[in-house]
Prior knowledge:
By secondary structure, this protein is mostly beta strands. It has one domain. It is built from 1 helix and 11 strands. The strands form 2 sheets. The chain has a 6-stranded antiparallel β-sheet with strand order 3-2-7-8-9-10, with no helix packed on it. The chain has a 5-stranded mixed β-sheet with strand order 4-5-6-1-11, with no helix packed on it. A hairpin with a 2-residue loop joins strand 8 and strand 9. About 15% of the residues are buried.
Amino acid sequence: xxxxxxxxxxxxxxxxxxxxxxxxxxxxxxxxxxxxxxxxxxxxxxxxxxxxxxxxxxxxxxxxxxxxxxxxxxxxxxxxxxxxxxxxxxxxxxxxxxxxxxxxxxxxxxxxxxxxxxxxxxxxxxxxxxxxxxxxxxxxxxxxxxxxx
Length: 149
């Protein structure tokens, strides 16, 4: 029994959640979603909507590299890597994935001649992550935005 009591401190030390300890922190990546609608709320990313923007060049610039939009139908597909900007299921633009533990400025969504700045700040204290999101210079509640044209 004494042998087991001597091992107990070693086992508890391995469970420490102190930064720099043996625990690996895995922060959730961040994706931005952008719905593009007209004044009456119609989806301008739907090819059946008159005046849609699918004929315009759509891309995103991140870290001085521009990525053209790709079209993806979601299903069960998970995108755990940087893919730029995609049109997902004809519903919204998805931009990412970004490192959820870092500050990202300089992400610019291009739709035709329009340029929209998108970024966030992440502050981390152990497992507590606080993010501030910005879309076209305005602070937002989260990473999902609506762009009215």
